[in-house]
Design brief:
- The complex is a heterodimer of chains A (285) and B (794).
- Chain A is of the alpha+beta class and 285 residues long.
- Helix content of chain A is 34%, strand content 26%.
- Chain A has helices at 14-23, 37-42, 78-82, 85-90, 92-99, 104-109, 112-118, 125-131, 149-152, 224-230, 237-245, 262-282; strands spanning 7-10, 28-31, 50-53, 63-66, 69-73, 135-139, 144-148, 153-155, 158-159, 166-172, 178-184, 191-202, 205-214, 221-222.
- A five-stranded antiparallel β-sheet of chain A has the order 4-5-10-6-7. In chain A, strands 11-12-13-14 form a four-stranded antiparallel β-sheet. In chain A, strands 1-3-2 form a three-stranded parallel β-sheet, with helices on one face.
- In chain A, a hairpin with a 2-residue loop joins β12 (191-202) and β13 (205-214).
- Chain A is globular.
- The N and C termini of chain A lie far apart (49 Å).
- The mean pLDDT of chain A is 97.
- In chain B, strands 3-5-1-12-9-10-11 form a seven-stranded mixed β-sheet, sandwiched between helices.
- In chain B, α10 runs parallel beside α11.
- Chain B contains 20 helices and 28 strands.
- With 794 residues, chain B is an alpha+beta fold.
- Chain B folds into three domains: 20-26 and 477-631, Aldehyde Oxidoreductase, domain 4; 35-135 and 208-260 and 265-298, Aldehyde oxidase/xanthine dehydrogenase, a/b hammerhead (Aldehyde Oxidoreductase, domain 3, Alpha-Beta Complex), CATH 3.90.1170; 302-472 and 636-787, Aldehyde oxidase/xanthine dehydrogenase, molybdopterin binding domain (Aldehyde Oxidoreductase, domain 4), CATH 3.30.365.
- Classes of the chains: A alpha+beta (285), B alpha+beta (794).
- Chains A and B meet through α12 of A and α4 and α20 of B.
Amino acid sequence: MISTPFEYSRATSLDDALAKLGATKGEGKFIAGGHSLVPLMKLRLSEPKILIDIARIPGLSGIREKDGKIEIGAGTVHHDVASSALLQRACPALSDCASEIGDPQVRNRGTLGGSLAHADPAADYPAMMLALDAEIQVKGPAASRVVKASDFFQGLFTVDLAADEIITGIQFTPVKSAGYAKLHQRASHFAIVGIGAALNVKNGVIQSARAGLTGASSHATRLTEVEKALEGKPATSASVEAAARGAGAALEDINSDIHGSAEYRRAMIPVFTERALKQALARIG
Amino acid sequence: MAVAPVLPKLVGQRTKRREDPRLIRGRGTYVDDIALIGMQHIVFKRSDVAHGRIRSIDTSAAKAMDGVEAVFTGAEIAEFLGPMPIGTPFPSPEHRAVAVDTVRFAGEPVAVVVAADRYIARDAADAIVVTYDTLPAVVDLELAMTGKPTVIHPAFPNNLAIALVPSGTGVSADGSTVDDSAVDAAFAKAEVVISQRMMNQRLAPSAMEPRGVVAHFEPGKESMTIWSSTQNPHILRSFIAALTGLGQDRVRAIAPEVGGGFGAKINIYGEEYVTAAISKRLGIPVKWTEDRSEAFVATTHGRDILGYVDLAAKRDGTVLGLKIRLIADIGAYNMLLTAAIPTLTMMMANATYNIPAIRTTLTEVFTNKTPTDAYRGAGRPEATYFVERAMDMLARELKMDPAELRRKNFIKPSQFPFATQMGAIYDSGDYEKALDLALKNAKWDQLKAERDAARAQGRLVGLGLSMYVEVCGIGPSAALPTGGWEHSQVTIERDGRISATTGASPHGQGNETTFAQMLADQFGVPMDDITILHGDTGVVKQGIGTFGSRSQAVGGAALQMAGAKVKTKMAKFAAALLEAHEDDLVFENGMISVKGSPASGKSFASVAAYAYVPVPLPPGLEPGLSDEAFFEPSNNTYPFGCHISMMEIDRQTGEPTLLRMVAVDDAGNLINPLIVEGQIHGGLAQGIGQAMIEEVVYNEDGQLMTGSFMDYAIPRAIDFPRFELDATVTPTPVNPLGAKGVGEAGTLGSTPSIVAAAVDALSGFGVKHIDMMLRPEKLWRIIQGGQQGQGGQS
C-alpha cells in the first residue's frame, strides 16, 4: 500500500486518544484493526494526515456481563466475539454473525467499533445491533452518551458519531433466541443480504420481535413490518414464514452491483429473514 | 571398511518439498527484497480512461518534487526505447511500453517517475496532470467486430487482430486451402446436432507475488543485470538484450524466488523494458514493484474466448463431426504469446475422441481491456470446456449416461500414436482406463442413486463428468519460436557434492526437489548432497523456461542426460582407481564399486576428489566432472484424465455448493506423487474458481469492476470439498522419463464437469447450458424461470 504521507501515534487511554484527535484539527483518524480505513487509504480515497492507533488502549476490548447486560468493548476483534464462551451461551447469534465476517485475517484484526463507525452498507454487525436493540456507547471530549442502534445508522457510511467522538463499546440485553443469516459475497465475504433477528417469546407466544437488514440498502435498516407481523403470533415455523414473506417489500433504493441486482437482493430479503428467524425459533429454550 | 547405509530410491517417492521450509518461514528472496546501493524507484502513471487521445501531459509539478530523479512521458521514453516485440508471427499494431499519443485500456502507462523511494515516486505520479480527449470504448467482443463504436487500431478494421484462421479436416498445413466437404458430409449425415454458444470468461491470474523488476546497468562494463519475477529468465534476457541494444553476453537475467506465475509471467512486459532502459539511460540501478491494484490492470488476463460449438452425431451416440467458431477477446494489444494462445484451443479440439471431421476457425478481436496472454492451461482448458460441454449436452439430448457416450467415442489405446484432425500427434493414452478408475472411485452408480434420492426430497443435486487431454511438455523446437529444448549442466564438485542447473526456471513446481530425487538415484548419493540451481542466466548457461507443463518432461530429461554424461566420465575415473572395467561399476549408497562386491568400492567423494587432482590422469580423460546436455523432445506430450463433480444448488438462493470433486489424472510416470498432487490441487482450485467464483468484469466504459480481491474472488479452502485424487500411469515415449507434465491438468477437466453438474442439478428447469461463472443470481433466475414455467409453484 502506498498511501499519502501520514504521521502515526499510539493512544494510551481514551482521554489521550480524544486529546490527540482534537489536536489534529480534523486531519486525524483513529485506527484500530484498519480493515475499513486502510483500503480507503490505499486508494487515496481517505488521506488522513495523522493516524491515532487505539488498538492497544487498556480496557477498550473485552466481553463482559454486567447487571444482566452484556458489554463489548469497541476494540474487541471479531474472532473474540465469534469464540466467546459467554456469547455462545447467552447470545449465540452474535457469535455466529462475527464468525461469518470476512475471512480469518479480517476476523483477527477487525474490530467491532471499527465496523460500526465505518458502517459499510454490507457490514454484518449493524444488522445484529438492530436485532439486539443494542446501545452504542460514545465518548466525546466533553461528555459520554449512549445511542440506540436504531438511531445510530443514518445513511451511506453515515452514523450518529461526531468527528471528535469515539465509540467505546456496545451494551445489550442478551437474547438467546436470535439468529443471523447472510448471503455471502464470495470475494469479500461481505453480506449481499444479511438479516439479524431476535424473538422475545413467552409461553409459546412471540411478545416482540426485532429484525435488522444489511447489504441491501444504503445502511442497516430495521424490518419493522416483519417485527409487527410477528407480535402476538405463536412461536412456530408457520408464523415466521408468513412474517418473512413480505420482508423488505416496502424498501426503496435497493443496492445493485455485479454481485447481485436489486431484484435479486429484494428476493433474498424474505429468504434470509426466514432463515434468521428459524435460527431464533430453534433456540427458544 | 564399514558398510555404507543403504539409500532408498527416491524417484516415485512422496518426498516433501525442500523449497518449503524457507518459503514458509519467510526466508525466500523475491525481487522486492533486492536493494542495491544508489537504487532509485519507478512508479508508472497509468491511464484512468479506457480509450482516449492524450491531449496534454504536465510533469512540471512532479519534476519539482524533492527526491524526484526524473519523469518521462511516453514520447520521451520512445526516444530511447523501441516498440515492444511479440513472440508470434501474426500481424500486430505498434505497441509502446508507455503510450505516446493514444491510450487503449484503463491502466495503460502514460508516464514514468523515477524517485528516491516508492512513496515519493507515487506522490509524484499523482502530481502529473494528464488530459485526454476521450474516445468511445468497446468491451463487448462481438460489438467490437462491427467496428462500432470505435476502431482501436486504425490498421485493423473492425478491430480484427486476426480476421479468420481455419484449422482441422481438409485444411492445408499453411491454412491456405480449405476443403469443407468432409465436415459438411458429417453434418449432412447427422441424426442429431448440438449447437451452443459458450463463453469462457476472462480471468485475472493473480499470482501471490505481483510482478517486480530491478535493473542495474553498469556503465563501466556496458552490461546489465535484471532481476524479474518471471517464469523464463533466458527469454527475458534475449528480449532485454534486443531492446537495450546490448548483446546477450552483456545481459544477465535473474528470476529469484518467484511467487507464482500461472502463465502470466511468461510475457515480457513493458515495465521490464522500461525499467531496463531507464537504468541504462540514467546509469543507476532502478526498481519497480507492482502493487496488487496495478496487477489487476497491468498483468495480462487469461481466457476470454467465445465458442460457437456444433456437434453432429448419430442417435446411438457416435460422434460424426464438430465445428467450433472461436472468437477471442485479446484486449487492447498483442503481447508475447497473446495471438497464439487461442490456436492451442483449436489444436486440442479433437479432445479424447475419434471425431472423423472437425472444422475450427479462429478470430481474434481487440477491445479496450487489459491484454490477454497465457493463464494456467492456456487455450487447452478452453478447448476441453467447449468440447466436453457439447458432449455433455449430447448425452443429455440422447438420454445416455455421459460416461458411456465418452466411452463409445474414445480414441482406442491401439490407435496411438494418434494423428488428430487438428494436426497433433497424441503420444500415448488409455482414456477408458482413466474413466473407469474415476467412475469406480466416485462410485458413479451409487452417486447417481444418491442424486436421485436427494432430488426426491426436493433438493437440486447434479452430477458432472468430463474427460480431458492436454498438450504439455512443449515441445519440439518447431513448436516454439524460442526453441523447444531444455538445458542442464551437472557438476560433481570436488567434495563429492553435486550441483546441477536447469533452464526450466521453477516458480512453485518443486523442481529443486524432483530433480534432486532424480540425481540422487542416478548417482546413488543422498539428496541432501545435491543442489539444483536455476533462475539466473549467469549461472544457468542456457534455458527456455517453465510453462506449458514442461519443466519435468523436458527439463527433467535434459538433467538426466547431463547426469548420464558426467556419470560415464566419473565411472572412468573410478575404474582407474579400482582397476576395474567402467561397465562393471555400480553407483549406490555413496559408493562406486564393482558390481557384487560393495566392500571393495571407493567413496563417491574420493572419486570426485581424484577427478579434480588426477594423478595419474587416466589416458584419454580431461580432469573434472561437469557436463551439459540439451534435450530436444521428439513431440509434445498429451496427458489426460477424468474429473467428476457433484453439486448442490440452493433452491431459494441459487448458491452452488461443490459436494464432491473426484479426479483421475494420467501424467505418465510420476517422479514425486506428493508434488503432483499439490499441482493438481492448485489446478483444481483455479478450475473451480473459474467455474464458480472468478470473473473479470468491465463496465461499458471500459472500467474494471473487479479491480481488487474485494470484488474478484480468489478461491480459498472454504470453497472446496476434499479433493479425491487418483492416477493412472501411461508413460510417454517422447522423453526418457516417461513423464508428461501436470501443472495445468487440474484446470482442464474441472470446469466442464462442474458446469455439467450445475446443468444436471437444474435440468428440471429446462436449462441446457450455463455460462461460467456460476453466479448465484444466474442460477436463481433459472430456477425462477423454471418455476414460472411450471405455473408459479414455490
